[in-house]
Amino acid sequence: MRLALLIALTMAAFAANSLLNRAAVDAGLTDPLGYALIRVASGAAMLWLLLALRGRGLSVQPVPVAGAISLTAYMLGFSLAYLTLGAGLGALILFGVIQITMFAVAVTTGAALGAQRLAGAVTAFSGLAFLLWPGGRISVDPAGAALMTVAGIGWAFYTLQGRGTADPLAASARNFLWCLPLVALAAVLARPDWPAPGGVVLAMVGGAVTSGLGYVLWYGVLPRIETTTAAVVQLSVPVIAVVAGALILGEALSLQLLIAGAAVLGGIALALTAPAAPADRSQTRD
Question: What local confidence, expressed as pLDDT, does residue 225 receive?
Fold first, then answer.
């Protein structure tokens, strides 16, 4: 039960990231790269503060090259995509790509999927395909979808990096530290506009709380679940974002979105109730 609550809290934080980013960028309170820079800086500051309160410093060696690059790809692609995508739609594309990437890695590394977990993944992904299929009532901007695809691939590999993490807080702080100069360089080259106070506040909340603390929770959960389960459970985030986007941001809530959301939730239920595959049992911890 405690693990399920931690997972639910983490997924809510991930959905909040979409809402905060979309709210700030769509309202013109900040440009995407300015938002990303404040978000990463706030996340790094929060994680370093927590390390200091814990009475531990942070060794910056070795440099987490894979973690920093994958986190940077996610941060930049995510922020830029919300110039043209709604919060719910963007989250649907993001976590659909994450699922595909993580399942592809699981298959190529020889992970045993199991028939029920595979059926759950197919059901959930079918819901996303139904939503995004060309010719539907919802129009998807190609550039925004491409940017969110980059973000999804980056987040998938960032997640995979966290499976062997012994100290989630230190690992997250180190990743944010080395991601910061990369995002800062991109922001400086793009010469972002000076953000409004409201945009700064939204970005700081998105960085310090829903990203910094949310990612620590996620890195703490990952070693206790299978890779394929981690992929499928994240598909709950688009459903949360779609509903919250309609209630908070006034985004359209269509029958197509509701059907897709039901399929996603049904697929997650199938995957989460599947028995652990023998090859995966040794990789999980209670």
Answer: 81
